[in-house]
Design goal:
2 copies of one chain form a homodimer. In chain A, the strands form 3 sheets. Chain A has a 7-stranded mixed beta sheet with strand order 10-17-12-16-13-14-15, sandwiched between helices. In chain A, strands 1-7-8-9-11-4 form a 6-stranded mixed beta sheet, with helices on one face. In chain A, helix 2 links the parallel strand 5 and strand 6. Chain A is of the alpha+beta class. Chain A has 2 domains: 266 residues, L-amino peptidase D-ALA esterase/amidase (4-Layer Sandwich), CATH 3.60.70; 117 residues, ArgJ beta chain, C-terminal domain (Ubiquitin-like (UB roll)). The first copy, chain A, has 10 helices and 17 strands. The radius of gyration of chain A is 22 Å and the shape is globular. Chains A and B meet through helix 8, helix 9, strand 15 and helix 10 of A and helix 8, helix 9, strand 15 and helix 10 of B.
């Protein structure tokens, strides 16, 4: 992260698009309201938040974890009308996962209550919960929290963006102004997560709002593409959550319609892409105990780049080396080889930052200490070129520090 | 590990077979010689060892890592006559991995020199190196070490078993007496490894010797079966080494022939199985920073038990919980769900030690603290029953401690 800047776009790997400017980071696009309250699900602090779009014609898109064990809120949300959501209820203090029928009824009751109070359908309410897996999420405090939050709905997302946090060190949010050919729209998001999974609890969330007018197909497309390039490309500990959730809502309150395959769609897409990638890198940087963010870029054949990049980004040896500012690149080759088809020629090039370390399979440096200065920064890039061509991928990852272990060794209950 | 016992079989999960007794742990079977010297590959201490069978009719079997990036010694050993090995040269202080042609020539030169001095064929010499990946292994000191070790060959494996260590806390070796129907044979092994990979360096090794007379097919069969049940079932950090090597040699010096499908083969197999499983658990228990060993048993369909057991054993969240004696079983369900086919019903049972925690998918305990006493021991067992039947597997794994991170964050060079 670049220190001393007050821009949202702090990663050197993310460029702010030219037609994007920043608003108050807690602001919301037109026609959106939010609030949160302390409902007692956590020992203290905000823990139940509601986000609402006032526009009847709001369209939406959603993405969820692919874990076979999902939380009840994911089950309930998947059954909702995911293209026509108008509200999101999110809580920390309990993931409502693994509590059987009781947990599922709590998720349905949340949708029903919010729908009644907001005068929409239960199927238009997305729900998302984060916290310890396997234990009961108390229903009455949650529903009381929903009631109170809805009474307090206001024009900014400040409390909402705080209520979704668990082990996060800070809020992750922004509100952007996007200049389209026909005028300006707003694009905002509030995220949480201190890892792909935020270990002591669980889950990453991201809630996106825009007052641009989009078709359901367009928000689905933009969400799909930008989530793939952001939250799908990060890891703290390789642990897929039971509860990861992205909800994106577009309500048209700006009066500006964005048609498919136009300059306006391109600009809005670029803005959403930069925004979600920055938030994704913030989640990595906020990984429990994280002190340094790595980026592994892998080039090669389409069937090899992805598993190799994941193996490197999830290797505790690569991650501890990054933590120690240790250029021990043998660990990158070992992790890559673990995920590469055995029996095929494994002749690779490796660069750390812009320095060639391995060329055509042979080490081209004489002393590891030469590489020391390259791995001292807050962000370190590794580029690995495998045999074959046609594909390139990247994964952003946290280092692994003693603090991660301390944090996750503590007694849960 | 059971403290205060002087038996080799310290894990409560391994039974010493009835017909097995223990000899001096550094002893060798008849007709085997070993020695090691300090050749300067490491800053200090023994680092080059040679093991030799005096019998011309020795048969052997070998197993190697499946990493696509292997060390030069693995390449050279794979090209050898793996059914007719008579000698093993092993060194610590450098894994000779990723050094291109130069490294390969060093491995070949080692085989050639040992063969010349021992009056055998170069193809009868297995080689194995462990240490930092990617840097040169100095050839002349290594060859000088081979010469000196061969001059010192003697009747025990004490120095040999020390020379192969890297980050290990202690030697891992035994020599057993196995009572067969026709008489007694000896079975010995020397292993190293502080994890599936021993991170700062790399690699697990195990060298097995018996003076029983076996066909090449029999030692191949026994090695294959027992390695699958031992070293293939452990993990410290999920990192497949570039250099894992098992060499098993049988030289017939006892005069006792073991025929296929006899009581003698069964007993020898049971002894080798218990020996390698105990050594494998010792490698886990010696995992860098390890304070506690976990065993996950997974029952279900043949296509799901293995990936689920691995996902649990490699989860840093499960491993930090084990370290902290934290019964946070939600992390086991999350890791299992990550490796289970999405969309299929994930209705499971979970036991910690003998206590039912989840039954038919629902939590059956009220307070996590009830489980605290179950996870305090040196060895903790988890049993997960997935939908479906017909398969069961197990993986032994270390906890993840701050010491692991400290150790692996230090500067390599």
């Amino acid at each position: 992260m670049r220190a001393g800047t007050d821009t949202f776009f702090t990663s050197r790997w993310i460029e702010r698009p030219e037609h994007v400017s920043e608003l108050d980071p807690a602001a919301l696009p037109l026609g959106f309201k939010a609030a949160a309250v302390a409902a007692g699900l956590k020992p203290d602090g905000l823990d139940v938040g509601v986000l609402f779009s006032e526009e009847a014609e709001t369209v939406s898109a959603a993405r969820f974890t692919t874990n076979a064990r999902v939380g009840a809120p994911v089950v309930a949300s998947r059954e909702a009308d995911l293209g026509r959501l108008r509200a999101v209820v999110a809580n920390s203090g309990g993931s409502n996962t693994g509590d059987g029928e009781r947990g599922l009824h709590t998720a349905y009751a949340t949708q029903a209550l919010a729908a009644e109070l907001l005068e929409i359908e239960p199927a238009q309410v997305g729900v998302a919960s984060t916290g310890v897996i396997g234990m009961e999420l108390p229903r009455e405090p949650l529903l009381n929290g929903v009631r109170s939050a809805i009474e307090r709905l206001g024009d900014d997302a400040d409390t909402f963006s705080r209520a979704i946090l668990t082990s996060d060190r800070d809020v992750k949010r922004t509100c952007l102004n996007v200049a389209l050919p026909g005028g300006e729209v707003r694009l905002a998001a509030q995220a949480k997560g201190a890892g792909m999974i935020s270990p002591r609890y669980a889950t990453m969330f991201c809630f996106v709002q825009t007052d641009a007018e989009l078709s359901q197909e367009t928000i689905e497309l933009l969400t799909g593409v930008t989530v793939k390039r952001s939250f799908d490309r990060i890891t703290v500990d390789g642990q897929l959550s039971t509860s990861d959730t992205v909800f994106a809502l577009a309500n048209g309150a700006s009066g500006l319609r964005v048609e498919p395959e136009t300059e306006a769609e391109l600009r809005l897409g670029e803005a959403m892409d930069a925004m979600l990638r920055q938030l994704a890198i913030e989640i990595v940087g906020d990984g429990e105990g994280c002190t340094r963010v790595g980026r592994i870029v892998v080039r090669g054949r389409s069937d090899t780049v992805e598993p190799v990049a994941r193996a490197i980004a999830n290797s505790p040896l690569v991650k501890t080396a990054l933590h120690g500012a240790d250029p021990n690149f043998g660990r990158i080759l070992q992790a890559a080889g673990m995920a590469y088809p055995p029996g095929e020629g494994f002749v690779v090039d490796l660069e750390i930052e812009d320095r060639q370390v391995v060329s055509a399979g042979a080490t081209v440096i004489d002393d590891l200490r030469e590489l020391g200065p390259l791995v001292q920064g807050d962000e370190v890039q590794y580029t690995l070129t495998l045999p074959g061509e046609g594909a390139e991928t990247e994964v952003f990852f946290s280092d692994l520090s003693p603090e991660y272990v301390h944090f996750n060794s503590e007694y849960t209950s």
